């Protein structure tokens, strides 16, 4: 395939004389004067500067960026906390936190009462004082049959 | 009439073989017994214990619980009142006295009174759930049940 065939296929209505002229010119070296080259380059620069001047630069305020960072950190922390196993919840009577209420919890509370080392958290019956009745509450819980399998 | 005695004997034999006249079946024997509960803490002072006593076959009903032999466990242990007339009970007791006032070795910590029906052999099991010294340290101990006056 030559250039003439290509032009004939694409534009069959082009005159043969024009096709011959273009084909002949293609084989010649075309010299572009330096002035023309410089003028084209100047025009291109002007065009590019005008386009750059029209471009909008959106600048977010710093507080907004900080707020976004906080929200992102909170989201990540929330996901991380949800994936972590929840700490075991101990019954209030489970003083030694071994996962069950037994007589040793009542014994531990009795020793605290005896030593006077008690606080409001040991007020098991909610009467405002920590005494033998609170120990009885824990002991009763320890020996309760409901829900316990022998 | 020589036939009269023979007829009377025949009627008597016939009546003795009628249905509904079977000899009375003896009812299940019911008796009461006491089970002593022992805890052996060996050389450690026993300050607290908790154990479960179970009668697996349902022919034993708990009817009463009393304390042990040592002064530290003389009072009846803690137990659920619902255990009365049941076949299972959890016993627990403690004493905050100094170590020298606590029992060591094998000691009777409680006695369980039961009603037994059926077989004369008492079938009861036990399991130690916790035991501790006066300092609150957990210890291992041996427990045993002995039926009082067992035949």
Overall description:
The complex is a heterodimer of chains A (150) and B (151). In chain A, helix 5 packs antiparallel against helix 6. Chain A has helices at 3-10, 16-26, 34-54, 62-83, 103-115, 132-143. Chain A is 58% helix and 0% strand. In chain B, 9% of the residues lie in helices and 39% in strands. Chain B has one helix and seven strands. A four-stranded antiparallel β-sheet of chain B has the order 3-5-1-7, with no helix packed on it. In chain B, strands 4-2-6 form a three-stranded antiparallel β-sheet, with no helix packed on it. Chain B has one domain (27-147): Immunoglobulin-like. Chain B is mainly beta and 151 residues long. Chain B has one helix spanning 3-16, and strands at residues 30-40, 48-54, 60-67, 88-94, 106-117, 125-132, 142-147. The interface between A and B is medium-sized, with 19 and 27 residues.
């Amino acid at each position: 395939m030559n250039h003439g065939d290509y032009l004939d296929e694409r534009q069959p209505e082009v005159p043969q004389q024009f096709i011959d002229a273009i084909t002949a010119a293609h084989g010649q070296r075309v010299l572009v004067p330096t002035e023309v080259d410089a003028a084209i380059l100047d025009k291109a620069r002007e065009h590019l500067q005008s386009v750059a001047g029209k471009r909008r630069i959106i600048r977010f305020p710093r507080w907004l960026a900080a707020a976004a960072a906080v929200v992102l950190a909170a989201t990540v922390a929330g996901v991380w906390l949800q994936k972590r196993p929840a700490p075991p919840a101990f019954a209030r009577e489970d003083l030694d936190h071994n996962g069950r209420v037994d007589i040793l919890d009542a014994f531990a509370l009795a020793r605290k009462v005896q030593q006077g080392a008690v606080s409001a958290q040991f007020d098991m019956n909610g009467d405002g004082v920590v005494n033998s009745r609170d120990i009885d509450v824990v002991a009763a819980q320890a020996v309760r049959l409901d829900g316990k399998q022998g | 009439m020589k036939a009269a005695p023979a007829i009377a004997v025949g009627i008597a034999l016939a009546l003795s073989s009628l249905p509904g006249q079977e000899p009375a079946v003896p009812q299940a024997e019911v008796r009461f017994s006491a089970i002593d509960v022992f805890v052996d803490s060996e050389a450690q002072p026993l300050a607290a214990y908790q154990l479960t006593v179970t009668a697996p076959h349902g022919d034993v009903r708990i009817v009463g619980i009393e304390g042990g032999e040592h002064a530290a466990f003389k009072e009846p242990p803690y137990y659920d009142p619902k255990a009365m007339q049941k076949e299972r009970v959890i016993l627990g007791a403690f004493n905050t006295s100094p170590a020298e006032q606590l029992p060591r070795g094998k000691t009777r910590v409680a006695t369980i009174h039961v009603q037994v029906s059926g077989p004369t052999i008492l079938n009861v099991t036990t399991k130690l759930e916790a035991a501790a010294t006066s300092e609150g340290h957990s210890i291992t101990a041996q427990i045993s049940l002995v039926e009082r006056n067992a035949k």
